Amino acid sequence: MIEKIKALAAKLYPEVVGFRRHLHAHPELSFHEFETQKFVEGQLEALGITNHKRMANTGVVALIEGRNPAKRSIALRADMDALPIVEANEVPYKSTVAGVMHACGHDVHTSSLLGVAGILHSLRDEFEGTVKLIFQPGEEKLPGGASLLIKEGVLQNPAPASVLGQHVMPQLPAGKIGFRRGLYMASTDELYVTVKGKGGHGAMPHLCIDPVAITAQLLVALQQVVSRFAKPSVPSVLTFGKVIANGATNVIPDQVYLEGTFRTLNEEWRAEAHTRMKKLAMELAASMGGSCDFEIRKGYPFLVNDEPLTDRARSWAEAYVGAENVEDLEIWMAAEDFAFYSQQAPSCFYRLGVRNEAKGIVSSVHTATFDVDETALETGMGLMAWLAVKELGA
Known about the structure:
Number of domains: 2
Structural class: alpha/beta
Helix content: 25-40%
Number of helices: 9
Low-confidence stretches: none
Strand content: 15-25%
Largest sheet: 8 strands, mixed
Mean pLDDT: 97
CATH topology of the largest domain: Aminopeptidase
Strand order of the largest sheet: 1-2-4-3-5-16-6-15
CATH architecture of the largest domain: 3-Layer(aba) Sandwich
Shape: elongated
CATH class of the largest domain: Alpha Beta
Radius of gyration: 24 Å
Order of helices and strands: HHEEEHEHEEEEEHEEEHEEHEHEH
CATH superfamily of the largest domain: Zn peptidases
């Protein structure tokens, strides 16, 4: 079976590269993947996969049934949305949409899953069970397309025994795969804070309530919520990346606006930290004569890779790409809405290497120069198809 899958992956590779380049040139933002949805549907139809439907407005879910389809079901997920980034790459497939770019590799994920669809549809008489293909919208934006799909029943009829997802990783060379069992990625919450005071002339601070001074104290104090109250064994990150004080050299503004993110890997501590941050912010501001509005928009939960499933997937990956090309990953404090699946069913979210230093393909995700070594597409679709048939028991 492994050689059949590798041969099919090699055969489909040129076409899948074409899929990826088309998607890269025509990116769409989260929950606006209308043309991407049509493209995916068209390619599934061309493969002969007619059992598909739309979900979560711009998503597509398809079924590939093998022999005895009711025996077991698994799900394979790819996300489809792009980011609001102006592409700096000068490549034939450069984004044609102003200010929008596939800077996180979702074009790779979608085209690779289309390749997986082609492989598994060709082999449907050689495995038992059903494969559910999830082409998911809106991974990059709250509340996350995964949460919407789950609410609409994507993990029902049939209910998958396991869910697999892959994501590009520019730190790994193309041809390599990364796994981590257990806790892997952080929860994520968005923080929106307004510190309010009383503006006035910079030369007369005694007549003002300076929100800039309050904010300076607040930024330092909030970090101590993490450093003094979180268990050292629980990873936590608190970052404020946006601070706006629209005063001037001699003008104290009425308020300061902040945006940040809080991430951790423990739900009890997450809830406690929310309470502590709000309480500290409001009381500190009040103690200095001001006030504070502290909004927390709760985002994705932490992502946990089911240990037995991940162990199986890792061993099968070693058989497919060689043990020397499979690496262990560290905990990563980035967040992914695949975490919603991992909270509902045994799941494994693994990494696909796309780096090629010789070709200058080294940029991180979410940057204007991100690109991938497209040979990773052949590895990615072949491996995922292989993991699928093995998980189905073939």
